[in-house]
Amino acid sequence: MATTASQAPLAPRASTAPTFAVLARRAAAALAGAAVLCAAGAPVAAADSAAPAAQASKLPDGLYGTKDPQYDGVWRQSLALLAQRTVGVRPSVTGVDWLAGQQCSDGAFSAYRADPAKACDDKTMRDTNQTGAAVQALAALGGHDDAVQKAVKWLKSVQNDDGGWPSTGGSPSDANSTSVVIGALKAAGEKPESVQKGGKSPYDALVTFQLGCDAKEGERGAFAFQPKDGKLAPNADATAAAVLGGLGDGFVVDPAGKDVNEPVKPLKCDGEAADKDAGRDPKQAAEGGAAYLAAVLGANGQHLKSAMPGAEDQPDVGNTADAVVALAAGSHGAAAQAPLKWLEKNSANWAKEAGPAAYAQLVLAAHAAGADPRSFGGADLVAQLNATGPKPAGSSAPSATPEKDAQDQDDQNSGVWWIFGIVFVASVGAGFLLSGRRKKSDI
């Protein structure tokens, strides 16, 4: 859960998001292709270069959060709506309509379009992380099949020859973006292994980002964001995203209770195993990634550390939440409990500053680990998330008929909160809103 925020993405994944073509799931990146650190579990989010920043006087009707949405509007909206749906909250129709209205006619989403009535053009920076997040949210909410299928068609059109995806078309594939798209394909009813380019599937691309038996012992099983100078460097954010991608999961995973205790299994590097890195099964790769995360969490006091320059000794709350989701997805419920307890004690200030994507990320982490997001370290995460956007239409247990839920929203929508906020100029911190997919590729 990627990225990208903590976000990125899987990004993030709400505490942060993708880059500037990769906002780190969690900082703002330079549009000229510089990668930016993301602060929360988000994908690498690209900004819509043609869209001006939101006016300080008033943000768009239906949008979650009070900060400038230029770099993470669709990402944070998608995670907020998805988290609400997951815990039985029916979002406001206004909020859902805002997200659906951000889609370009070709099916893609950018980070934010200030004027949805203005058609997307060649200057509109389309982003796979934002699109993948929107697909997961709209598919879960139901009633938006056409939008979902158009988005999936666009995602397929920008798949790289290695089978993976970058945050923006024409760039090299990365682990976070590929994982977010895998989650989107599954949410849309597709079989990711069948979505191929050049004879390569997303899973073929994903395993190439994993550090294998030729890496240092403590780094084996980790995933890199993408190679740099032909070398792979372990990246906890990319690893959390890739674990979900390798398992074929999206941002939402079925709860794994504390009694679910499948032991994590590090990569086997004895005998012939060392010669089989290239043909590793994606689920086996995900297992190796989960083992790496569990080891790093244990060594750091049950949290991950920031990869932002100058803050390497600081906890990364968003990526820790992503790691909890990743461990739970692999049925390592017991291993997820200690970092979950750490989040209960240490996430409140971070979430308050980061906003809706962060609250959503924590809701999804609590849900995945079998905890109650309405009683999380003394806080009601669901109420806090709801307060960042338009008033929900209602509340009920999620059903197997999302189309009916969508109709219920229309029937029960009770209104919208106008959101006023001060524009947050993202020179160094925009990625903090995206969920963790914005890590620099060399971190």
UniProtKB/TrEMBL annotation:
Membrane-traversing stretches:
415-434
Q: Where is the composition biased (Basic and acidic residues)?
A: 263-284
Instruction: Answer yes or no on keyword Manganese.
Output: no
Matches recorded under Gene3D superfamilies: 1.50.10.20
Q: Where is this region: Disordered?
A: 263-285, 387-411
Query: Where's the Squalene cyclase C-terminal domain?
Result: 131-177
Where is the signal peptide, in residue numbers? 1-46
InterPro entries listed in its UniProt record = SQ_cyclase_C, Terpenoid_cyclase/PrenylTrfase
Q: Which UniProt keywords apply?
A: Membrane, Metal-binding, Signal, Transmembrane, Transmembrane helix
Q: Cite a single GO MF annotation.
A: metal ion binding
Q: What is this protein's name?
A: Squalene cyclase C-terminal domain-containing protein
Q: Does the keyword Membrane apply?
A: yes
